[in-house]
Amino acid sequence: MPLYMDIHHKIDGLTAEAIKGAHEQDLKVQEKLGVKYLHYWFDEGSGKAFCLVEAPSKEAANAVHREAHGLVADELIEVQEGA
């Protein structure tokens, strides 16, 4: 299954607690769309966030965010895992 990195350039009010909650909402929705959110990273100071996700398509990955909490990524890039 394709692997994607999504990028949120600026989430206003981003905190560790808020992004944890958003990720938990993703996990509740992902299975019905055939998606698996694996990890996330964030920087409170800049409001940037990154999510690593396995999904059958970019559209499916975005659909999880849209349904779970509405914070759709600004960019979604297909990536390959390295060592």
Label this structure with key terms.
about 30% helix, about 80 residues, alpha+beta, Alpha-Beta Plaits, globular
Please describe the topology of this protein:
Layout: E1 3-8, H1 16-29, E2 36-43, E3 48-54, H2 58-68, E4 75-79
Helix pairs in contact: 1-2
Which fold name is given in CATH as the topology? Alpha-Beta Plaits
Helix and strand sequence: EHEEHE
Mean pLDDT: 95
Structurally, the number of domains stands at 1
Shape: globular
Give a written overview of the molecule.
- With 83 residues, this protein is of the alpha+beta class.
- It has one domain: Alpha-Beta Plaits.
- The protein is 30% helix and 31% strand.
- It has helices at residues 16-29, 58-68; strands at 3-8, 36-43, 48-54, 75-79.
- A four-stranded antiparallel sheet has the order 2-3-1-4, covered by helices on one side.
- The radius of gyration is 12 Å and the shape is globular.
- It starts with a strand and ends with a strand.
- The mean pLDDT is 95.
